[in-house]
Write a structure and sequence with these properties.
heterodimer, A: mainly alpha, 7 helices, B: alpha/beta, Rossmann fold
C-alpha cells in the first residue's frame, strides 16, 4: 500500500514540475486534483474535529438528557449534559451564515458577521496594541537604559542606535502630512534604504524557502521513489 | 555572448538549479554549521527544563510546506523525549492533524515514548482565536477529546494540566501567521513563553519579536533545523537540506552577479 502511495506521489510531483517546461494537461490534472483533495480533506477534518465534538455530540447528548428529564429517568450525568442545550444559540447564529443562499433572507447574515467582527475587534485591539506597538516601542527604547547603565556592549550599542535610526527614518517615509523636502526628504531617503534592505532580506529568505520545497521533493524522488525501484 | 546571457531561456536556469540540488542529494558533502543565538536559546531553554516538564508544540504547517518545519519538529521532539519532557501536540490548521499525528507517533516510537504518558496529540479545533484564548482558561474546554477520541480529562499525562499555567513552553512550528497569533494572544494575555520554528519565507517578520523577548528562541528554516541537529549531535533532514541548499544558493548568487554584470555592460554600451 505504501509503495502505491509513493508512486502516486512521485507521479503527481513530476506532473507539477512538468509546468517548468510548459503548461500541459498533466500539470492541470495534478493542480485540480490537489485543490479538490485539499478542500475535501479540510471539510471532512472540520466536520470530524469541529462540528461533531463541539456541536453535534454535546447537543445530541443534551437532547437525550432532556428526554430523560421528561420521562423521569434522569441521573446526575444526564442532568450535567443538559448544559449542552445552551449550544443551540451559537449553532443557530452560525447557521445564519447559510442565509446567504436565499435572496429573501440574505440580510440575516449580518448578525453572525457583526458578532464575529465585534468579538474579533474587541479581543484583538488591546492585545495587538500591547504586543505589536507597546512591546515593540519598549524593545526599541529599552537598550538605551542599559547603554546608560554601561552594561551594553559596543556591538549592541551600535545595533540599538541603528534600530532607532531605522524606525524613525522608515516611519518618516510613510509620514505624508508634511512635504518631503529638506531634512524630511533625507530622512525618508534613509528610510527607503532600510525598507529595501528589509525587502531584500525577505526576498532572500523566500528564495531559501522555495528551494527547501524543491530539495524536499527531490529528496523524495531520489530516496523514496527511486529507492523503491532499485 | 552578452546577448545570450541577457536572453537566457529560463529553462536553462531550471536545469542548473535541478542539477545543483540533485548532485548534493546523491553525494552528500557536510558543510560546517555555526549555531546562531536564537536557536541556541531555544535549545538551552529546553535543556534546562527538569524532567516531567511539559511543552506544547503547535504544528501550524501544511503538507505543502512541511519541508522545513518537519526536521525541526523531529529534532525538538527527540530532545524532549530524551530529557523526559512531556509533549502536547496540537494544530490550528485543518490540513495538518494526520501529518502531525503520524510524525509524533513515529518519533515517539523511536524514543520509546508512550502515548498518554509522555505525549498526547489533541488535534485540531476550528477558530484560531477561540482555540488560543480558550486553552488559556481550560484546555479540556476546547479539546474535550484528543485526536484519538480519548477524553482529555482521562489521559494520565493531562491529569495535572489545566491551562497554560502548567505549560513551560509553547513551540509554534509555522509556515504562516500563526506565530504572531500565539504571541498576541497567548504570550501577551497569558504570559506563556513562546518559541518558534518557521519557514524561511516568514523569518524576517519574526526577528522583531526576538529582540523584545516575546519569542525566547527561533529556528529559521532549514538552517534552524540543522543548527538544532548539530546541538543534539544528531544530523538529520535539516542538515542534509541545508547542505543541498548551500549549493543552490551559490548558484543563485552567481546568476545574480552574472545578470547584473551583463545588465551594466549592456547599459554602458547603449549609453
Amino acid at each position: 500500500m505504501e509503495i502505491i502511495g509513493i508512486w502516486v506521489a512521485a507521479f503527481l510531483t513530476l506532473c507539477i514540475y512538468s509546468f517548468l517546461y510548459r503548461d500541459n494537461p498533466f500539470y492541470r490534472f495534478a493542480e485540480h486534483l490537489f485543490v479538490g483533495i485539499s478542500v475535501g480533506y479540510i471539510i471532512i477534518i472540520s466536520i470530524h474535529q469541529g462540528v461533531i465534538p463541539l456541536a453535534w455530540e454535546p447537543l445530541s447528548e443534551a437532547i437525550s438528557a432532556l428526554w430523560a428529564e421528561i420521562v423521569g429517568t434522569t441521573t446526575p450525568e444526564t442532568r450535567n449534559a443538559l448544559w449542552g442545550l445552551f449550544r443551540i444559540l451559537p449553532i443557530a447564529i452560525g447557521l445564519l451564515f447559510f442565509a446567504r443562499l436565499s435572496s429573501r433572507h440574505t440580510w440575516l447574515i449580518r448578525y453572525p458577521i457583526a458578532i464575529l467582527i465585534g468579538f474579533g475587534a474587541g479581543v484583538a485591539i488591546p492585545n495587538v496594541l500591547q504586543a505589536n506597538i507597546f512591546a515593540q516601542t519598549r524593545g526599541t527604547i529599552e537598550p538605551f537604559a542599559a547603554m546608560n547603565a554601561g552594561t551594553l556592549s559596543v556591538l549592541d550599542t551600535f545595533n540599538a542606535v541603528l534600530i532607532v535610526i531605522g524606525v524613525i527614518c522608515t516611519l518618516t517615509y510613510f509620514f505624508f502630512s508634511v512635504e518631503h523636502r529638506g531634512p524630511i526628504n533625507w530622512l525618508s531617503k534613509v528610510g527607503i534604504a532600510f525598507l529595501m534592505i528589509g525587502f531584500g532580506a525577505a526576498f532572500g529568505n523566500t528564495v531559501m524557502g522555495r528551494l527547501a520545497l524543491l530539495i524536499h521533493r527531490v529528496g523524495f524522488l531520489l530516496n523514496d521513489w527511486m529507492g523503491s525501484i532499485f | 555572448m552578452l546577448e545570450k546571457i541577457m536572453n537566457m531561456d529560463r529553462r536553462v536556469i531550471f536545469i542548473l538549479v535541478a542539477l545543483v540540488v540533485i548532485f548534493p542529494t546523491l553525494v552528500p558533502v557536510r558543510m560546517p554549521i555555526t549555531v546562531s543565538e536564537p536557536t541556541r536559546n531555544l535549545y538551552d531553554f529546553i535543556e534546562t527544563l527538569p524532567s516531567g516538564s511539559t511543552i506544547m508544540i503547535a504544528f501550524d504547517y501544511g503538507p505543502s510546506s512541511l519541508a522545513e518545519p518537519e526536521p525541526m519538529a523531529k529534532a525538538v521532539m527527540q530532545h524532549c523525549f530524551s530529557k523526559g519532557i512531556k509533549i502536547i501536540g496540537m494544530t490550528l490548521l485543518p490540513n495538518t492533524p494526520t501529518l502531525a499525528h503520524k510524525l509524533m507517533r513515529k518519533i515517539a516510537a523511536e524514543n520509546n515514548a508512550v502515548y498518554g504518558e509522555d505525549y498526547v496529540f489533541l488535534g485540531y479545533r476550528p477558530g484560531t482565536l477561540q482555540v488560543i484564548l480558550g486553552m488559556g482558561t481550560d484546555i479540556s474546554s476546547v479539546f474535550e477529546t484528543d485526536y484519538e477520541n480519548k477524553t482529555v480529562d482521562e489521559i494520565p499525562m493531562m491529569e495535572n494540566i489545566t491551562n497554560y499555567d502548567q505549560i513551560d513552553l509553547l513551540l509554534d512550528l509555522a509556515s504562516g501567521s500563526t506565530t504572531e497569533a500565539w504571541i498576541i494572544y497567548a504570550n501577551t494575555r497569558y504570559g506563556v513563553k513562546i518559541a518558534a520554528g518557521v519557514t524561511a519565507v516568514i523569518i524576517a517578520q519574526m526577528y522583531p519579536y526576538l529582540q523584545t523577548g516575546q519569542l525566547i528562541g527561533l529556528m529559521p528554516g532549514y538552517l534552524g533545523a540543522a543548527e538544532y541537529e548539530k546541538l543534539l549531535n544528531a544530523p538529520g533532514d535539516g542538515t542534509i537540506g541545508l547542505n543541498t541548499a548551500t549549493y543552490a544558493h551559490l548558484l543563485i548568487i552567481g546568476l545574480v552577479i552574472l545578470g547584473n554584470i551583463a545588465f551594466f555592460i549592456q547599459r554602458r554600451r547603449e549609453g
